[in-house]
Amino acid sequence: MGRDEGIARLRLIRTGGIGPVTYIQLLRRFGDPEAALAALPDLARRGGGKAPAVASKEAVEAEVATVKRLGARYLFRDTAAYPALLAEIDNAPAALIVKGDVTLLDRPAVAMVGARNASGIAIRFARQLAHDLAAEGWTVVSGLARGIDTAAHVGSIDGGTVGVIAGGIDVAYPPENAALQDDIAARGLLIAEQPPGTEPRARHFPYRNRIIAGLSLGTLVVEAAPKSGSLITARLAGEFGREVMAVPGSPLDPRSQGANLLIREGATLIQSAADAIEAMGTIGGGVRAGRGASYVPPEPMDAGDAERRVVTDLMGPVALPVDEIIRQSGLPAPIVQTVLLELEIAGRLERHAGGRVSLA
């Protein structure tokens, strides 16, 4: 795409209140980002709120200059360069910032995640497992955290690894992994959703986890506490229709409780790279590796005041699946999506994992 269109897309993406789902719906509805930007005030009015402050052209141009200076570039959703597996999920990032070997996105990928305070034996096993998977032509995806994530990257960096960053692509977190992050940029691939310079905050890590799970045919957990981020990644993988796998551990070690729980709930028990490859091979026909956007939202339809009331009356502060709103309202899905679009731009809607929404 041309520079002007790229700038307009980023202005839309960086505007508050416009999430990944809304971004795609706006492009689908108005055809180009400039028209979508111009329509925001009217959409917000219909949604019963004020239009969000649009990101300035100057701010976005400064971001683009920084990305270029860092040796990175953008991959926009609904373009051929975007990872196809990630595009399968409805809330995939509107744009990725990448640095390194993007051809790694053309290979089948497996996510490896686990405890930050992992045991020595688990770190050793994860490193060897990642090495063996990469040697078989798999790209190993992880989140550059301490412990298992670091072991996964170190084990696979010679064969193909992708590091997904919670903050900006130029921010190393944890700081002790700065050298590893640089090495991945040189020999693997770094991916970030946030603009350069963004320090990672707690709210960024669930967003990062969905990218890790979304890029991969399966997510493999090696040691994890029952309420850890690793189990969130595994749960997301299951919601995305991907394979969930876990390495069993001693019941005497609290760090193994999460992985053992996943196995008890139906995750595939993994003892070798061959086990993981066999497990993911059973679902490979349902999703595809490589690149090229595949998510197409429903054709938009205008909503009337009566239809808006039906939808908003069904909603409240507790998150409800969009499919349930469609079912209970009896309205066509495109009309419900239009109402939700207007509410989100008006600042009255919050989107949650699993295709759920609530009133703000």
UniProtKB/TrEMBL annotation:
A GO BP term here is: DNA-mediated transformation
Where do the Smf/DprA SLOG domain residues begin and end? Answer: 75-280
Q: Which residues form the DprA winged helix domain?
A: 297-355
InterPro entries per record: DprA, DprA_WH, DrpA_SLOG, WH-like_DNA-bd_sf
Q: Which Pfam families match?
A: DNA_processg_A (PF02481), DprA_N (PF21102), WHD_DprA (PF17782)
PANTHER family per the UniProt record, alphabetical: PROTEIN SMF
**Which NCBIfam families would you find in this protein's record?**
dprA (TIGR00732)
Query: What family, per the record?
Result: Belongs to the DprA/Smf family.
What protein name does the entry list? DNA-protecting protein DprA
Task: Report the source organism.
Answer: Sphingomonas crocodyli
